[in-house]
Amino acid sequence: MALDEAIYSRILEKKNALDKLRPFNRGALAKLQETFRVDLTYNSNAIEGNSLSLSETKLVLEEGVTVGGKSMKEHLEVTNHSKAIDFVESLVSKRNLEEIDVLNLHALILDRIDPENAGFYRRGAVRISGTTYTPPSPAKVPALMREAYALLKTKGGEPIETAAKIHQKFVDIHPFIDGNGRTARLIVNLYLMRNGYPPVVILRAERKKYINMIAKSRAENDITPFLNFLAKAVERSLDIYLDSLGKNPGEYLELAEAAKISKNGYSQEYLSLLARTGKIGAVKFGRNWKITKEALGKYEKEHAGS
Ligand SMILES: Nc1ncnc2c1ncn2[C@@H]1O[C@H](COP(=O)(O)OP(=O)(O)OP(=O)(O)O)[C@@H](O)[C@H]1O
Ligand SMILES: [Mg+2]
Questions:
Q1: To the nearest whole percent, how much of the chain has pLDDT over 70?
Q2: Spatial contact of 2 and 223, defined as CB atoms under 8 Å apart
């Protein structure tokens, strides 16, 4: 695979640690989801040129207020994007994704901003400001988009790689007159979440890199540059999720310490075996397995006297 091995092995390790924390603490998860909503809305809209700051975006979404001096359109971009996130969340567990799901998503992005085009492929040529790339003619869009929908249906393989390919295909086709970037970034999140990853935020601060990696991947006809860029965003999200959903690292015991308090008399080696084979709720930090008192107690209770 094209994904940088060092990043990929860290991602797998962190994803594994995160999965061990399931089912997640509901309160902590709700908080993460709310933060994600504001962060993604702010950053994705700012990449597109919206001038609301992070705190203004938060105010609009959480307090329902309007910000003085900002246009109706900029406010609609914020509230529409938040509704689009709700819609994406509703699609995470849908059995099959279809063209209509993507059109509905785009319809939310441009709702009441450009009713003529919201939810419809473009009928004319489109240019991407700041680039020399000319997307395909409108007549070719529906057929080309079928390739994007085929990718969206992909099961198996590394989800980050497929997500990167979907994004690339989408922005290369540029199916809509406007809102392509915002829609593409939401679809990346949809695909990642459908495949067990936390959602990702491409930051306003890395806009230049983001645009450059898109151009590089197309020029080289190789997803590697954009894929590695996206993978860094995935790792960042995993770190945030682990931080919020994981126990304090201080609450974890080394297996040697766990062995000392084991009621069933498990040795460090036996605990290590249980951890490696996934039988006990242990989490890997770097190269070492660790476990909480609760996870140890739970396993010991279930296996008392055996
Ligand atoms: N050279 C390029 N080739 C293809 N796509 C590109 C290129 N440069 C940027 N893009 C994509 O096109 C998007 C801009 O397209 P468009 O204006 O339709 O979307 P938007 O949602 O309104 O804006 P934005 O994507 O900036 O938020 C960028 O965000 C990026 O995803
Ligand atoms: Mg635009």
A1: 98
A2: yes
| Cα 143 to ligand 2 centre (Å) | 23
Looking at residue 24, the DSSP 8-state letter turns out to be P
Q: Specify whether 174 is catalytic.
A: yes
Q: Does residue 247 register a pLDDT over 90?
A: no
* Domain 5-245 class, CATH top level: mainly alpha
Is residue 120 within 8 Å of residue 221, measured between CB atoms?
no
Domain ranges in the chain are 5-245, 250-302
pLDDT of residue 285: 72
pLDDT digits (tens, 9 = 90+) for 23-51: 898 889 999 999 999 999 999 999 999 99
Interval 188-246: pLDDT, tens: 999 999 999 999 999 999 999 999 999 999 999 999 999 999 999 999 999 999 989 97
Q: Within a 10 A sphere around the Cβ of 178, how many other Cβ atoms?
A: 18
Expressed in angstroms and rounded, the spacing between residue 176 Cα and the centre of ligand 2 is: 10
pLDDT in tens, 159-168: 999 999 999 9
Instruction: Kindly name the residue from 75, 106, 174, 303 that is annotated as catalytic.
Output: 174
Q: Which helix (H) or strand (E) holds 254?
A: strand 252-254
Ligand 1 proximal residues by C-beta, below 6 Å: 47-48, 128, 131, 133, 171-172, 178-182, 184, 211, 214-215
pTM score, whole prediction:
0.84
* Residue to substitute in 109, 167, 211, 226 for testing ligand 1 pocket (most ligand atoms within 8 angstroms of CB): 211
For residue 277, the 8-state DSSP code is T
End-to-end CA, the chain: 44
Query: Which amino acid would we find at residue 78?
Result: V
- Considering only CA atoms, which residue is closest to atom 28 of ligand 1? 181
Q: Say how far apart CA 248 and CA 242 lie, in whole Å.
A: 10
> Residue 73 in contact with residue 113, Cβ under 8 Å?
yes
